Each structure stands twice: as C-alpha cells, then as structure tokens.
Structure to design on (331 residues):
C-alpha cells in the first residue's frame, strides 16, 4: 500500500471521527452548562485525550520518530476509551439511588482505573522489551498478541458491567416508555465492544497496520460519543416526545398528560409513623428528601401509584390534586 495514501486515510479518519465525537461532547457540555458533575468532567478529559491524539497524527508527520509516535498514539487511545467508560459509569452513579449502589459503582470505577493503568503499563513494558531485543531495526511499537487479548478482555468486562449496572434504574422507573429509552441508551455501550473486537482482530492478524490504526481511531471516537449519548438523546426525545410517550390527551393511573403540566392525583401521607413507613416501603428511593436528582413525571407517577392503595387502606380517601410543572430530566 502507498505510504502517502495510508497516511491520508488515517488523517482523514482521525479528523472526521474526532470532529463528530467532539461535537457530541460539546453539545453535552452545553446542555449541562450549569450542572457539571463527575461524568461531565470525565467526558472533558476523554475529549482532551482524543484531541491530543488527533493533533499528534496531523502535526507530527516527519517531526517525531515512529517509535515515540506509536507510544503516544496507544497511550492516548487507552486514555480516551477508559475515561469515556468511567464517564458512563459516573452517569449511572449520578442517576442511581442508595448507598449500596453508590459503593458498588465506586468500586467498579476503581477497577476501571486499575485496568486502564494495567493496559498502559503493559504498553510500556512490551515496547521497551521490544526495543531492547532489536534496538537498531525496530521502527515502531506494534501491539502484541498479549496486549490485544488483555485489551479485549478488559473492554468486554467493562462494557458488560456498564450494561448491567444500568439495570438497577429499571427497578425504580415505572413508565414503560422511559424504560425503553434507557434500554436504548445504555445498550449502546456494546457499540464500544463491537469496535474493540474489530480493532483486536486487526491486531491479531498483524498485516494491515493502516486498518489497525483506523480501527483504533474509530473505537476511541465511538467510546466518547456513547458517553455523551444519554444527555444528547434526552434532548431529542424532549423535542419530539411523541417518539416514546403517550398521547398528550391520554390518562394513566391518576396522571393526566397535558402539554406543559402534569396533574398528579394523590392524598398526602400523614405524619403517623405507620402510614409513612408503608409509603416509604413502596417507593423508598423516590421519596428520599435528599435525592441527588430532580423528580420527573414518571417518578411522580410511580409515587402516586404506590401510595394510593396504602392511603386508602388507612381510610384516607379525600384526594388532593397537585399540579406539578414539567421537571428537568436528570440526564
């Protein structure tokens, strides 16, 4: 293959894919401008590593030796992918409820950081060993078979963990349309796994280094785009709610859907401890006063459905209509 043509393909792929991933991330940051959290900071970090990778590819031609360039490329690739995965995990932590889930996800975040460090150390270990074996003939640090296997194993573990970690959100959210939306959003975590499998397959073949680099570029951009997808997708659904929501004139279990106001019919819990315990036993996470997220219409729906039977059991039948304005989404 013509080296100039290969270089052009790599530069073109890097520019297009990186521009798309950066646009997704900037849109995410614009949406969450006044409410940055750890997941947004991790997304910014991943974007910085991706930009560094693109700059090195476009500017370093003839200025940096190939061995050093391969070092920088692989290190920034790992940093982009794993910081994006940590951003997704932090999003799940932000949306999750309860101390046990927080502790579990914090442990998973530590494992992700450890895997990132192990992959980076393996890179330096393999490349330095290769340099000492043939200090004259070596031109670049190519990924080895062991690096490819560890990269694929760690990637599949991380993506499957992210997918199953998001399932705890489905246990709380009652609205079927929102549940389908969450399934769509978090199942895209597997897109990074598919890109990783393609990348590893080119590494194991070891013939076409151009396609190997292109696959790595695509995987990094897919990882960063998937990290921003929950926030960006929510805006799309808010602009066109008919995609996943019922008709605005329909009713469902005590909630009248209107254009800008949701009407929730319920009787407030009295101060008696027995009734309050019954209510909180039904919806413990939704009724937490210090929950780290705003209540959406589906959350209010779940509260109303859960506490109405309990209140009727205690003879509290006088309903109270509360008009709740559309709350901002936690995404």
């Amino acid at each position: 293959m013509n080296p100039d043509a290969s270089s052009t393909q790599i530069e073109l792929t890097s520019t297009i894919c990186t521009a798309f991933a950066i646009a997704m991330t900037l849109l995410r940051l614009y949406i969450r401008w006044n409410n940055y959290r750890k997941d947004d900071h991790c997304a910014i970090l991943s974007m910085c590593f991706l930009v560094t990778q693109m700059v090195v590819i476009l500017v370093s031609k003839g200025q940096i030796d190939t061995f050093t360039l391969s070092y920088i490329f692989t290190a920034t690739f790992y940093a982009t992918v794993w910081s994006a995965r940590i951003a997704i995990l932090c999003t799940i932590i932000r949306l999750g409820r309860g101390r046990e889930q927080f502790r579990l996800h914090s442990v998973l975040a530590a494992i992700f950081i450890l895997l990132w460090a192990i992959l980076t150390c393996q890179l330096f270990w393999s490349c330095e060993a290769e340099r000492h074996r043939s200090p004259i003939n070596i031109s670049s640090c190519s990924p080895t078979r062991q690096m490819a296997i560890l990269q694929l194993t760690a990637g599949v573990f991380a993506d499957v963990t992210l997918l199953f970690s998001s399932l705890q959100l489905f246990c709380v959210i009652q609205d079927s349309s929102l549940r389908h939306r969450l399934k769509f959003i978090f199942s895209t975590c597997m897109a990074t796994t598919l890109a990783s499998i393609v990348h590893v397959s080119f590494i194991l073949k070891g013939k076409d280094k151009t396609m190997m680099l292109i696959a790595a570029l695509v995987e990094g951009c897919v990882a960063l785009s998937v990290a921003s997808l929950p926030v960006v997708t929510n805006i799309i659904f808010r602009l066109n709610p008919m995609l996943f929501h019922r008709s605005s004139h329909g009713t469902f279990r005590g909630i009248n859907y209107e254009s800008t106001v949701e009407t929730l019919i319920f009787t407030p819990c009295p101060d008696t401890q027995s009734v309050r315990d019954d209510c909180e036993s039904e919806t413990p996470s939704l009724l937490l006063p210090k929950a780290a997220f705003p209540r959406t219409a589906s959350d209010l729906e779940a509260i109303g459905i859960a506490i109405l039977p309990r209140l009727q059991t205690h003879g509290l039948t006088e309903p109270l209509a509360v008009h709740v304005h559309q709350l901002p989404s936690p995404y």
